[in-house]
Structure formats: C-alpha cells, structure tokens
Design goal:
The complex is a heterodimer.
Chain A (H helix, E strand, L loop, with lengths): L3 E4 L2 E4 L5 E7 L7 E6 L6 E5 L3 E2 L7 E6 L2 E6 L9 E6 L6 E2 L3 E5 L1
Parallel strand pairs in A: 2-11
Antiparallel strand pairs in A: 1-3, 3-8, 4-5, 4-9, 5-6, 7-8, 9-10, 9-11
Chain B lengths: L2 E5 L2 E3 L5 E8 L8 E6 L5 E7 L5 E3 L7 E6 L4 E6 L8 E7 L7 E2 L3 E5 L2
Parallel strand pairs in B: 2-11
Antiparallel strand pairs in B: 1-3, 3-8, 4-5, 4-9, 5-6, 7-8, 9-10, 9-11
The chains are: A mainly beta, B mainly beta.
Chain lengths: ~110, ~120
C-alpha cells in the first residue's frame, strides 16, 4: 500500500502568514493527489485535486504543487477562516490513502 | 443539488455486525465512484472502501474480509456491511462521491461505537 506522510503535524501561524504543508508518498503517484480542509464537527472539503487544480469556489490564496512523491499545499496569506486541519490523499492506486493530517493553529 | 445522507450507525458489541446506508440524491450512484471514509474520535481520516461505477470493489487492509461495500441502483443507495466489529472500528463513517478518485461530495457521517 502507498503510505502518505504529512509534515508538520501541527503548524502555528498568524493571519497574513504564508504557510506550506508537505505531503510525501512512499512511491510515485504521478499527480493523483488531493488536498482537503476539515473544520471541527464538519465533513472534509476538497480544496485541490490532481495535485494543483483548485476546486470551484476555493480562494486563490490556496495552491498546490508537486508530482511523483513530493507535494505541497501553500496558503499565500492565511485568513481566519483557514485555521483547520488539512489532509492529503492519494488516488493513484486502487487502495486510496490519506496523510495523517496537519493542524493549522492560531499563533 | 448533490446530497448524501448516512444512517445505520449506533452502539454494537465487539464481534457484532452493522449495516450503514448512504442515500444519494442529485446524481446516480451507479454512474460514479462511491467511497466510505471513517474518522475515529480525535483522529485523522482513514479511507475504508470504494466501489467503482463498473462494480469493482476495494478495501483498506484494516477492514478487508470483514466489510462489504455495495449499492442498490433502484434505491440510489450505497451500503457498508460491517461484520466482526472491534473497538478499533469505532468512528464516524462518511460516505462520499468520488467521481475522479478524490471525494468531491460528503455526507454528514454516521457514528459507529463498538463497545461492550
């Protein structure tokens, strides 16, 4: 199975900061990677698909990049609504897997 | 409008069984990929299973041989039959539409608690 490893596990940041989350795959997954945002008590929401495609309605301050085994999610200027937990997910193989999550906290 | 409504969760003893349902509206379950994802209390997301539009099914190693994903096209409903449950299966179970492999639409989840 493909393992997904996110870093950091927790990130403390302030409004306006540029933040970057990394997701590494245990083997190449091309660009078959999605990023989700989850807020407490809510279902996850897909933000980015195919590594870098912004989903409809997602603010342009979010961006994704990478291919193969290393991927990043960047928020160019963190807003109050962005404090949440973020997960990557690979869908390259028949068995999909999520990263363990990165919690973005208020500094 | 796409809507997914899960049901069937509850309290079950270890070794017991439960069947979860996910009623879909706004699209046809048989025409897309449908998946189950769970989240243990205070933990991250764990992919559980997927059924492709063609009917192929796949499972995470943690549930393979115990869980079965299926769908009823006439009811436009997705199911997850869960057998031989353990305390490790305690989680909020989400169903999701995954048209291109990633989950674009999610239900609100149904809670499964395995405890004696």
């Amino acid at each position: 199975d493909i393992q997904m490893t996110q870093s950091p596990s927790t990130l403390s940041a302030s409004v306006g900061d540029r933040v970057t989350i990394t997701c590494r795959a245990s083997q190449s997954i091309g660009t078959w990677l999605a990023w989700y945002q989850q807020k407490p008590g809510k279902a996850p929401k897909v933000m980015i698909s195919k590594a870098s495609s912004l989903e409809s309605g997602v603010p342009s301050r979010f961006s994704g990049s990478g291919s193969g085994t290393e991927f990043t999610l960047t928020v160019s200027s963190l807003q109050p609504d962005d404090f949440a937990t973020y997960y990557c997910q690979q869908y390259n193989s028949f068995l999909w897997t999520f990263g363990q999550g990165t919690k973005v906290e208020i500094k | 409008e796409v809507q997914l409504v899960e049901s069937g969760g509850g309290l079950v003893q270890p070794g017991g069984s439960l069947r979860l349902s996910c009623a879909a509206s706004g699209f046809t379950v048989s025409s897309t990929y449908m998946s189950w994802v769970r989240q243990a209390p205070g933990k991250g997301l764990e992919w559980v299973s997927v059924i492709y539009s063609g009917g192929s099914t796949y499972y995470a190693d943690s549930v393979k041989g115990r869980f079965t994903i299926s769908r009823d096209n006439s009811q436009n409903t997705l199911y997850l039959q869960m057998n031989s449950l353990t305390t490790e299966d305690t989680a909020l179970y989400y169903c999701a539409r995954a048209t291109f492999g990633y989950s674009s639409d999610w239900g609100q989840g149904t809670l499964v608690t395995v405890s004696s």
